Amino acid sequence: MKVSTVSSQRQIERRAVFLVSGGARGITAQCVIRLAGQYRCGFILLGRTSVAEPEPEWAAGCGTEAELKKRMVSFCRKEGRALQPREIQKDCRRILARREVEHTLQAIRQAGGRAVYACADVTNGKELKAELANAVRQMGSVTGLIHGAGVLADKRIEAKTDEDFELVYGAKITGLQNLLSCVAPDQLQHLILFSSVAAFFGNPGQTDYSLANEILNKTAHLIGRLHPSCRVLALNWGPWDGGMVTPELKHFFEDRQIPLIPVPAGTQVLIDALENDGSVQSVIGSSLPVVEAARDTTLRKHRIQRTLSLEENPFLLDHVIGGAPVLPTTCAISWIIHSCESCYPGFSFFASRDFRILKGIVFDRTFAGSYNLDLVETAAPDPDEIVIEARITSSAPGGKTRYHYSTTLVLKRHLPAPPVRAFNRLAYPDSSPDMPFYRDGTLFHGPSFQGIRQVLELTPERLVLECEVDKIDERRQGQFQLRTFNPFSADIAFQSMLIWVRQTYGAGSLPLACKAGEQYETVPFEKPFYITLEVVTATENRLVADIATHDETGRVYNSISGGEVAIDKHLIELFKQNRFRNETASAR
Fold first, then answer.
1. Helical ranges in 292-371 per DSSP H
2. Which of 23, 175, 283, 370 is the most exposed, fewest CB within 10 Å of its CB?
3. For 510, phi and psi rounded to 5 degrees?
């Protein structure tokens, strides 16, 4: 026998009252009817459909939109009035909507619940408060909120207007803000937000809808943390077999083998979510179909501008040289990689060729604040691979362009299988657990970048490290969030060159370039991995090495060929000055 895990403060009692936006019609109405049958509680349904005016006599007996249109045309002709087809359609749909509202109210009462309807637009805060006050007098104080209102305006992003965005965004986000201004979260026992799989997977033509629903998801997590006594749910619904899914759209989904959520199954999911202390956010259903458009054969260019600041990137205080924070090389690579992947959905970063550090970004008097990333396709579009030249620049005083980083990036639709190199952890019995490198000036890196756990081997030709990087809080990651490329774990590869140089030449070093780099999988947080450095050439001024990052079986996460650092003994003193000195920076 299953024992309920619902706490007494979250149980839905008969005296409970739910305020439901979009609750009188469509799928939200079906969910409310199911809740009424389960809990026999009360509901205040909000919608934009007016039910004040009675249905015209001529509409009696007409059950479909086609019948209504035919009857209305006949009636208007008798009255000697001429209506445009758009007006006829609008009036007929208004009648059908009114009927649906009345049917929902009747179904709730037949199921054992109580319900009233308030005609109000959730995007109009003043109207909402006035209508809600009257409904609360009839039903009692609101104890739960279901936000199911939503509007679609599907178009490709370049065709969307400001009005399209406001229509879609307003129903979801402005609507929720207005609802919470009427009913404070601290008086709620339940908050249920109807989100969409479009927020989780994305969907062509629905940039605004995806954005709005993802804000709902994040809001649910936030309110859940701030008000732990309130059961908060963000249900990311896939397409239902009903509601906004027309027969034509249903056929479209069936052709692409996208399963629809049956109404009985979907409403049961809602009941199960309410009666179990599960996660705040749930995805119900599969991803929406992606229809790929034919690619333009024109070589495309993109310019992406980013404003950097210390305040938005707390990890920079763990990457300080000579008293000034320095943007890690791996963060510059991360910015390029993730920008390219955003510009080309369906493609993933595979390789970087000829990466060069021209002038690093330092948060001192040279700091520009605003930086440009230019991306230029270099070859005719290929269905499986895209090659892009990337360059990060800023404007120096006087308008002169300052060049910071450059590379050629290769994106692939399907990454090749990771190579496997010979490796046996047990072959290093004399490894050194003492790690002085973060203390003696060999490395300047703070906690966000400290991942070296042991030196397994150190010779004039080779260095092997055992590593593990603690998970970095998302707030601390700032503008360089972990996605397909982990800049915090990847930084260890460059640290290995600094260690080898210090142990071999007693000097410090900084990265200059990388002939080639390849990634097969993302280096994980909180899991051991290994760095194997093999020297290619070395002098007192410069080291060139090949580096592989791999797991305990030798399976390669990523690799660097021809990684190059400049060697300078004066760097040791600068490395020891790894605490931020405010007077050195004019960072904004």
1. 329-343
2. 370
3. -135, 145
Q: Are strands 348-357 and 401-412 parallel, antiparallel or unpaired?
A: antiparallel
Which SS3 state, helix, strand or coil, does residue 531 take? Answer: strand
Between CA 460 and CA 506 the distance in angstroms is: 13
Q: Averaged over 288-293, what is the pLDDT?
A: 54
pLDDT value at 295 more than 80:
no
How far is residue 355 from each of residues 11, 74, 351, 389, 483, measured CA to CA in Å?
Answer: 59, 74, 10, 10, 20
Q: Across the strands, what pairs with 50?
A: none
Identify the CA nearest to 209 among candidates 160, 163, 147, 165.
165
Which residues are within 8 A (CB) of 54 and not within 5 positions of it... i.e. 6 or more apart? none
d(CA 374, CA 391): 5
pLDDT at 290 over 70: no
Q: Which residue has the tokens 């593990």?
A: 468
Domain spans of the chain? 11-53+114-284, 301-412, 425-584
Q: Which of 309, 307, 315, 306 is nearest to 473 (CA)?
A: 315
User: What tokens appear for 452 in the block?
Assistant: 């070296």
Give the CA distances from residue 139 to residues 10, 24, 32, 116, 178, in Å, rounded to whole numbers and listed in that order: 20, 16, 16, 8, 20
The whole-angstrom separation of Cα 256 and Cα 93 is 30
pLDDT of residue 297: 64
pLDDT at 1 (0 to 100): 30
SS3 of residue 400 by DSSP: coil
Residue type, 245: V
Residue partners of 511: CB distance under 8 A and separation at least 6: 329, 357, 494, 497, 563, 564, 565
| pLDDT tens-digit map of 1-25 | 333 344 444 679 999 999 999 999 9
Report the DSSP beta bridge partners of residue 394. 402
In sequence order, what are the residues at sequence separation of 6 or more whose Cβ sits closer than 8 angstroms to the Cβ of residue 309? Answer: 369, 587, 588
Q: What is the pLDDT of residues 476-528, one digit of tens each?
A: 999 998 889 999 999 999 999 999 999 999 999 999 999 999 999 999 889 99
Question: By three-state DSSP, how is residue 408 classified?
Answer: strand
Are 11-53+114-284 and 301-412 in the same CATH fold?
Answer: no
What is the per-residue DSSP string for 50-80?
--SSPPPGGGTT--SHHHHHHHHHHHHHHHT
Cα–Cα distances (Å) from 440 to 61, 227, 380, 548, in that order, read 89, 47, 51, 25
* Contact criterion met (CB below 8 Å) for 402 and 368: yes
- Fold classification of 11-53+114-284 is Rossmann fold (3.40.50)
CATH 3.10.129.120 describes domain 425-584: yes
Helix then strand then coil, in percent of the chain rounded to 5, is 35, 25, 40
Q: Is 4 exposed, middle or buried (0-12, 13-18, 19+ CB in 10 A)?
A: exposed
pTM, whole model, 2 decimals?
0.54
Helix extents (H) in 312-375? 329-343
Distance between CA atoms of 77 and 57, rounded to whole angstroms? 16
Digit-coded pLDDT (tens) for 242-271: 765 656 566 666 666 678 889 999 999 999
